[in-house]
Amino acid sequence: MNLSEMRAQPDQSNNLSKANFFDWKEAGTMGAKVRPYGKWIRRFLHFIQVSKANGDTITAVVPCINFDYSSSVVVPIEGGCPLDEVYDAQLKGETSNILPFCRFSDPPASWGKDAKIQNHSFSANVNVINRAKQEVNAKLNGSGITEDCLQVVSFKKTAWEKILLLAGASDNADPDFTRGDPSDAVDGYDVKLIYHADKPGTQRYQVIESKSAIPLTDSEIESIGSSIDLEEYYKTRTRDEIIEHLTKIYESDGINGGTSSSANVTDGIADMMTKAENAMNTA
Ligand SMILES: [Zn+2]
User: Fold this and answer.
1) pLDDT for res 259
2) How far is the CA of 242 from the centre of ligand 1 (A)?
3) How far is the CA of 52 from the centre of ligand 1 (A)?
4) What is the CA(79)–ligand 1 centre distance, in A?
5) Span from the CA of 82 to the centroid of ligand 1 (angstroms)
6) CA 184 to CA 12: how far, in whole Å?
7) How many CB atoms neighbour CB 93 within 10 A?
8) What is the CA(85)–ligand 1 centre distance, in A?
9) Could you confirm whether domain 14-281 is CATH 3.30.420?
10) Which of 30, 102, 177, 189 is 20 to 30 A distant from 77 in Cα terms?
11) Which residues contact 126 (CB under 8 A, 6 or more apart)?
């Protein structure tokens, strides 16, 4: 082939740039209706600040590997997570030798002066169709799903317990009071996610289930085919891979944190996640 017939390589194809996080605060007390689909992914996430060689500071989101995510309850294990070492060093007022350019952010002033830095936080994540953003009229002639309808919702402990309760995921679940997995393509249903800014801590998050099952339509199934793969997005790395990943970010110059070589989290997504997570953490 002649050079003149060749074309520039497209960006490494991954769908991670589509990650669009649901904002609980924006949903407010009126709530927002969403239809979960796909798999539920549980992770303890580190939000770690990387002071890059070029002077920029970015937040990277890295799943902690000191947990077993395959068991019914996510339990701590000896995984050799380097970020836990960064955390321990920082608590002692030291800088870690392995990742000297990484640092956990200080707790917000609103947490009080005795607040400790946060190591990692739990979230269960799922893909959803945001019904409010799905165009009702278009639905008559198709799914009505545009890219901003497809979101990722992070559930913290209390909201997650409500989902488990609905699913009957309990040793003594009462079948008369369970609805099954809301993400099921056929028997699943919408949930309304509500945020109460005036309530304390964990009570701010409310989940209400719809009265009946709402199967995904064929056109919806087609539309969600291109949504973000949460297993890939929240994939766990080995200790060495985490160090390599963060070192690449440290060395990178571009706005994407030098992560284009593999399907990694870009700054934009990390920022969005951090925003979504912070909205929950500081609640
Ligand atoms: Zn860790």
Assistant:
1) 42
2) 10
3) 20
4) 8
5) 6
6) 31
7) 6
8) 8
9) no
10) 102
11) 36, 37, 38, 39, 40, 41, 152, 153, 155, 183, 230
| Residues whose CB falls within 8 Å of the CB of residue 113, separated by 6 or more in sequence, listed in order | none
Whole-number Å distance, alpha carbon 64 to ligand 1 midpoint, is 4
The owner of tokens 């953490």 is: 281
Helices and strands in the chain, H and E counts: 8, 9
Q: What is the whole-number distance in angstroms between the Cα of residue 63 and the centre of ligand 1? A: 7
Q: How many residues does the chain have?
A: 283
* 209 Cα: distance to centroid of ligand 1 (angstroms): 34
Cα 2–Cα 3–Cα 6 angle in degrees, nearest 5: 100
Q: What is the pLDDT of residue 20?
A: 87
Separation CA 156–CA 161 (nearest Å)? 9
Q: Which residue has the tokens 């995921």?
A: 169
Domain boundaries, the chain: 14-281
> Which of 1-10, 133-142, 147-156 is predicted least confidently?
133-142
101 alpha carbon – ligand 1 mean position (Å): 16
pLDDT at 261 > cutoff 50:
no
Q: How far apart are CA 132 and CA 257, in angstroms?
A: 33
pTM, entire model: 0.82
- Amino acid at residue number 226: S
Could you list which residues have their CB under 5 Å from ion ligand 1?
Answer: 64, 66, 81, 83-84
**78: CA distance to ligand 1 center in Å?**
10
The tokens describing 114, both together, are: 């005795």
User: How far away, in angstroms, is 4 Cα from ligand 1 center?
Assistant: 49
Residue 120 has pLDDT above 70, yes or no: yes
Taking only the tens place, the pLDDT of each residue in 81-94 is 999 999 999 999 99
Tokens 């289930």 found at: 209
**Burial class of 135 by CB neighbour count within 10 A (0 to 12, 13 to 18, 19+):** middle
Give me 24's structure tokens: 């609980």
